[in-house]
Design brief:
3 domains; three-stranded antiparallel beta sheet
Length: 403
C-alpha cells in the first residue's frame, strides 16, 4: 500500500505532520478526521511535486445532470451496477465516463457506492459521498440523490451569479488597460514628433502624458508588467497557504460593496450545505466538518470549526455561532428557532433561499453601481489623454489666428 505524508491541525490547535500507510487518500483523510485532525495537506510520498492539474474535468452542471438521472433510475428500481453502466455509456465527457466506469467496477467488486465514490474525491466531494453513505444506510438513496441534485443545481446558480458580478468589471478594466496602453505606446509618440517639428510650448497635462508614454515604451514599462505578473503569481501561492488564505479572505469581506456580497454568498452556501446534510441524516458534527471544508472562505471555515468544537463539548449550535460574530443576527436567530422547534433542516433551507435571493439582488445592485463608475473612469482617462494631445494644437491655432 502507498505511504502518504500529511499536515494538519489537531483539536488543541497544534500543527501536526507525519506519514501513514493507507489504501487511498480518502481512507487516510477519514481516519485523520476521526482522530480530530483538520488536514491542510495530503500527498503520496514520492509524488509531492507532481505537475499541478487545473480543475477536475467534470463541471458542476454535468454532476447535477448525472445525479438527477441516477436518482430517477434508482427510484425506478434499476440495479445499481446497471444504472452506473448506462450513465457511463451515455456520457460525452470522457473523463467523467472513465470515473463512472471505475465506480461501477468498484461496486461490482463488492464495495459500497459511497466508498467507491471516495476514490474519486476530486469529483465526488466529502458532502457528496457522505450523503450517499447516509442514503445507503437509511435505504433512501433515491431521495438523497434528488436532494443532492437540487443542492448542486442551486450551487451552480449561485456560482453563476458570482461570475456575472465579476466578469463585467474585469472585462471592462482589461479592455480599458489595453486601450490606454495602445494610446500611450503607439498614438502619443506620433503627436510628440509633430510637436517637435512645430516647436510649440507644451502645457503640463501634455508633458505628463508624454512622460507616461516614454515610460510605457521603455524597458521599465516591460519590467512593471513582469513585476505585476510576478506579484499575481506570488499572491496566488500565498493564498494557497492557511495564513495567506485567512488574511486575504478577511480583507475581501471588508471591501465595500464586494464584502457584503461575499458574506451573503458564504452564508447561503453554509446554510444550504448544512441543511441538506442534516435532512439527509448526516450527524451534526460530521455535517459541520463537511460544511467547514466546503465553505469557500477561510473566515467562515474557522468560525464553523470553532462552532463544531463547542457543539462537540455539549453546547447548542446557536450560541457558538453568535460568538463568532461572523454570521448576521437574523441567521443565528432563525437557527435558534429551528433548534427549539426541532426543524433545523427546514429552517436552514429557508435561510439559504432568502440569502440566495439576496445574492441575486446584490449582484444586480453591484452591476448597476459599477456601470456609471466604469463609464466615468473610461471617459476621464481616455478623454484626458486625447485632450492633452490636442491642447498644444489649440494653442498653436490661437497664435496663428492672433497674427
Amino acid at each position: 500500500m502507498p505511504v502518504y505524508t500529511y499536515r494538519g491541525v489537531n483539536r488543541a490547535g497544534t500543527t501536526v505532520a507525519g506519514e501513514r500507510v493507507a489504501t487511498n487518500k480518502a481512507e487516510l483523510a477519514a481516519l485523520l478526521r476521526r482522530e480530530q485532525i483538520n488536514v491542510s495537506k495530503l500527498s503520496e510520498k514520492g509524488k509531492e511535486f507532481q505537475i499541478p492539474t487545473f480543475g477536475t474535468g467534470v463541471d458542476s452542471k454535468e454532476l447535477a445532470i448525472f445525479t438527477r438521472q441516477f436518482s430517477v433510475m434508482i427510484d425506478a428500481g434499476l440495479p445499481l451496477v446497471q444504472c452506473l453502466e448506462i450513465l457511463a455509456g451515455q456520457q460525452e465527457n470522457k473523463t467523467f465516463q472513465k470515473i463512472l466506469t471505475g465506480v461501477r467496477a468498484s461496486v461490482e467488486g463488492g464495495a459500497t457506492l459511497s466508498a467507491s465514490m471516495k476514490q474519486y474525491d476530486k469529483v465526488f466531494d466529502p458532502l457528496y459521498y457522505n450523503m450517499v453513505e447516509a442514503g445507503e444506510t437509511g435505504g433512501i438513496l433515491d431521495t438523497i440523490l434528488q436532494r443532492l441534485s437540487s443542492y448542486i443545481e442551486k450551487n451552480v446558480k449561485l456560482k453563476r451569479a458570482v461570475k456575472s458580478a465579476m466578469i463585467y468589471p474585469v472585462s471592462v478594466m482589461g479592455i480599458a488597460a489595453m486601450v490606454i496602453t495602445l494610446l500611450l505606446w503607439k498614438v502619443v509618440p506620433i503627436f510628440v514628433e509633430l510637436f517637435n517639428g512645430l516647436g510649440v510650448d507644451l502645457p503640463l497635462p501634455t508633458r505628463i502624458v508624454i512622460a507616461l508614454s516614454r515610460f510605457v515604451g521603455s524597458i521599465y514599462g516591460g519590467m512593471i508588467v513582469v513585476l505585476f505578473i510576478g506579484a499575481v503569481v506570488a499572491l496566488k501561492f500565498w493564498y494557497g497557504t492557511p495564513q495567506g488564505r485567512f488574511v486575504l479572505d478577511t480583507v475581501v469581506l471588508k471591501v465595500p460593496m464586494v464584502g457584503p456580497l461575499m458574506r451573503k454568498i458564504a452564508v447561503a452556501r453554509f446554510t444550504r450545505t448544512l441543511g441538506t446534510l442534516i435532512s439527509s441524516g448526516v450527524p451534526i458534527l460530521e455535517g459541520l466538518d463537511i460544511t467547514a471544508r466546503t465553505s469557500g472562505n477561510a473566515v467562515i471555515e474557522r468560525a464553523i470549526i470553532q462552532t463544531r468544537k463547542a457543539v462537540e463539548a455539549g453546547r447548542s449550535l446557536v450560541d457558538p455561532l453568535k460568538e463568532t460574530e461572523v454570521f448576521p443576527g437574523m441567521v443565528t436567530q432563525m437557527i435558534g428557532v429551528g433548534e427549539q422547534t426541532g426543524a433545523m433542516d427546514a429552517m436552514l433551507q429557508k435561510i439559504a433561499d432568502f440569502y440566495e435571493d439576496e445574492v441575486d439582488a446584490a449582484v444586480k445592485d453591484l452591476l448597476t453601481a459599477l456601470e456609471p463608475i466604469m463609464i466615468v473612469f473610461l471617459g476621464v482617462v481616455v478623454g484626458g489623454i486625447v485632450i492633452s494631445m490636442y491642447l498644444p494644437l489649440f494653442s498653436l491655432i490661437n497664435k496663428l489666428a492672433g497674427h
